[in-house]
Write a structure and sequence with these properties.
The protein contains 7 helices and 2 strands. It has about 220 residues and is mainly alpha-helical.
């Protein structure tokens, strides 16, 4: 139970999900206003990549200024997820990997963010590697958390719903790969939309975890009794 010597942590999970979501949409709007990209629905029109929204003008500074702290916050978020699972009595091997996979994912996000806006094959390689590692390892971490919750006597329903969300995320990724193999030219036209949708699904999972942290009264103690 929480007391006056502790404070709730769900707001941290909320920030971990909201900051990346708000950042990419803010840089999109600013880039449209400044004329760097055209107005469109990136989730459907596939008119611009997430990277392009933060590559030029004011958006360059907004993207880096928000995403670098978000990466640091993400490291804490994943570490606390490991603590939360242990607090719920879930001591599975998969749950133990969550903080470490999350750490690497956030370091990859940091590298991607730092390389964004710079030209050269080396920077391009860092961006491509960073974004792939970030999406892949974040998804695996979310899958491990969802699977662990599915086996909990109280949170199994929420775990099942989170697993369904993970299955949707995986389905979008697999469909993108199949489309790339069968119709590469059409896939190139829609590739950016897949990126936006995957980012949205990943952020929704983080926001859902924030709700569960709040419902489970996940707190941190300020000092020992």
């Amino acid at each position: 139970m929480a007391d006056h010597r502790s404070f709730p942590l769900w707001w941290l999970a909320l920030a971990a999900g909201l900051i990346p979501f708000l950042t990419i949409h803010t840089t999109f709007v600013v880039s449209v206003i400044e004329g760097h990209i055209s107005f469109c629905n990136p989730y459907w029109d596939s008119c611009t990549s997430i990277s392009r929204t933060g590559r030029s003008g004011t958006s360059y500074f907004i993207f880096k200024g928000a995403m670098l702290p978000a990466a640091v916050l993400g490291i804490l978020f994943w570490w606390l997820n490991g603590r939360w699972l242990r607090q719920l009595g879930l001591h599975t091997a998969g749950a133990a990997w969550v903080p470490w996979l999350g750490l690497i994912a956030c370091l990859a996000l940091t590298a991607y963010t730092l390389a964004l806006g710079h030209t050269g094959e080396g920077f391009n390689l860092v961006r491509r590697t960073g974004v792939v590692l970030y999406f892949a390892l974040t998804f695996i971490s979310q899958l491990l958390i969802s699977g662990a919750l599915k086996n909990h006597p109280v949170w199994y329903r929420e775990g099942g719903r989170l697993l369904t969300l993970c299955q949707i995320t995986l389905g979008v990724g697999i469909f993108s790969l199949i489309l790339d193999g069968l119709a590469p030219d059409y896939h190139d036209q829609k590739d950016n939309a897949f990126e936006w949708v995957l980012a949205l699904l990943i952020n929704i999972h983080a926001l859902w975890l924030a709700l569960l942290w709040r419902r489970s009264a996940f707190h941190a103690r300020l000092w020992a009794a």
